[in-house]
Design brief:
The protein is built from 7 helices and 4 strands, in the order ααβαβαββααα. The protein is an alpha+beta fold. The radius of gyration is 41 Å and the shape is rod-shaped.
C-alpha cells in the first residue's frame, strides 16, 4: 500500500511533501514545536493510545493548529475508545463533528482559528445538520462512483479475457481450415494417381477396357463422395 501511495503522492506533491513510514512517537522529534498546522490522529484506537498521541503532539501544533480525529462514532467495537476521548477533549476547544463514515472530529486547538474554519465552528444546530447532510451525501456519491469504477475495471478484465479466448479460437479455426485444405489437396493427388494408373493398365491390357473403365468410374464416384464428406457444407 505504501508503494502505491508513494507512486501517486511523489508525482504530484513531492515538491512540498514527503511520506514517512513510522510511528507517532518516532516521528515526533522530526517536527519542531509549534510547526504543525494540521494533525490527523488515526492510529491505535484505544482511549489511552489516542490520549497519548494527542497530548504528546499538542506542543507541535502551531497557533493555527487543527486536530482531526477519526472514528469518533465507533462505540460498539471492543477496545475502541476514540469516542470517549473526543467527548472529553471537545469540552476545551472549538469543535465540529461529522457523523458519517465512522465519524470525524475537527478540533481547533490553536489560539488563532483559521478564517476558513471559523464559520464551520460557529454554526447553529440547524446549520450543523445541513453541513453534515451535505458531506454525508457527498461521501455516499463518492462511494458509488468508486463502486462503479471497480465494476468497470472488473468488466474490462473479463472483456480482455474473452478477447484472448477469441484470439485463441481464431487461431484454432485457421489451423483447422489449413488442415482441411491440406487433406483436400492430398485427396486430389490420390484421385489423379489412381485414375492415371487405371488408364495405364487399360492401355496394356486391351481385352479389359470396358471393365477397367467401369472400375475407374466407380472409383472416381467414390472419391467424389469422400471429397464431399470432407468439404464444408453449404447451407
Amino acid at each position: 500500500m505504501l508503494d502505491h501511495l508513494k507512486a501517486h503522492h511523489d508525482e504530484l506533491y513531492s515538491l512540498f511533501s514527503r511520506l514517512l513510514q513510522t510511528t507517532f512517537d518516532d516521528a515526533r522529534p522530526q517536527f519542531a514545536d509549534g510547526s504543525v498546522d494540521v494533525l490527523h490522529i488515526d492510529g491505535h484506537h484505544s482511549y489511552d493510545a489516542v490520549m497519548h498521541d494527542f497530548e504528546t503532539w499538542l506542543p507541535k501544533l502551531s497557533r493555527r493548529g487543527v486536530v482531526l480525529m477519526h472514528d469518533i462514532e465507533v462505540r460498539d467495537r471492543p477496545g475502541f475508545g476514540v469516542w470517549r476521548f473526543w467527548d472529553e477533549v471537545k469540552q476545551h476547544y472549538p469543535h465540529f463533528a461529522f457523523h458519517h463514515s465512522y465519524g470525524l472530529g475537527v478540533l481547533a486547538v490553536g489560539r488563532d482559528i483559521p478564517e476558513g474554519l471559523r464559520p464551520l465552528l460557529m454554526l447553529d444546530a440547524d446549520g450543523q445538520d445541513a453541513v453534515r447532510r451535505y458531506f454525508a451525501n457527498l461521501g455516499d456519491h463518492l462511494e458509488e462512483l468508486h463502486g462503479v469504477a471497480v465494476q468497470r475495471e472488473n468488466l474490462q478484465e473479463l472483456l480482455d479475457a474473452k478477447s484472448m479466448d477469441c484470439v485463441r479460437l481464431e487461431g484454432d479455426i485457421v489451423a483447422a481450415v489449413a488442415e482441411r485444405d491440406a487433406a483436400r489437396r492430398q485427396h486430389a493427388r490420390m484421385r489423379y494417381r489412381i485414375v492415371d494408373k487405371l488408364a495405364r493398365i487399360g492401355n496394356r491390357i486391351p481385352v479389359l477396357p470396358g471393365l477397367l473403365h467401369a472400375v475407374a468410374v466407380a472409383v472416381v464416384r467414390l472419391l467424389r463422395r469422400v471429397n464431399r464428406m470432407i468439404s464444408p457444407r453449404r447451407d
